[in-house]
Amino acid sequence: MRVDLKQNEMVVKAGNSNRFWEDGLIEGKFIVTNQRIYFKAFNGHEGKFDLEVTPEQLREVHFFNTGFFSRDGLNLILKSGEQHRFRVKKRNDFGELINKMY
C-alpha cells in the first residue's frame, strides 16, 4: 500500500480500519494527514474503495457504536450529502484530529 502525499503533507495518525460498504466491510488503512483524510483498501480491493477527503469537503464528523459495546464508529458527512462510515480504534483521537482540520 502506498499513499502519494502532496508537498508539505505529513501523516499525523494512521491505523487499521474497516469501511462500511453496502452490506459488508472493506478492510483497509485509515490515514489522517495535516491536509486530508485517506482510506486505502486491502485484500484485493485496492483502488476500488479508496477514498480521499479534504477539509473543504467535510460538513460534520459523527461517532456511532458499531455494536452494543463497540464504540468505534466514525461517520464522515460531506457537504455533498455523502456519508462514509468507518470502524476505527481510538475513534476519539481520530475525530479530534479531523475536527481541527475544518
Description:
The chain has a 7-stranded antiparallel sheet with strand order 4-3-2-1-7-6-5, with helices on one face. It has a single domain (11-101), classed as PH-domain like, CATH 2.30.29.30. It has 102 residues and is mainly beta. It is globular. The chain has one helix at residues 91-101; strands at residues 11-21, 24-33, 37-41, 51-53, 58-64, 73-78, 83-88. The chain is built from 1 helix and 7 strands, in the order E-E-E-E-E-E-E-H.
In brief, what are we looking at here?
A 7-stranded antiparallel sheet has the order 4-3-2-1-7-6-5, with helices on one face. The protein has 1 helix and 7 strands; from the N terminus they run βββββββα. It has one helix at residues 91-101, and strands spanning 11-21, 24-33, 37-41, 51-53, 58-64, 73-78, 83-88.
Task: Please describe the topology of this protein.
Layout: E1 11-21, E2 24-33, E3 37-41, E4 51-53, E5 58-64, E6 73-78, E7 83-88, H1 91-101
Antiparallel strand pairs: 1-2, 1-7, 2-3, 3-4, 5-6, 6-7
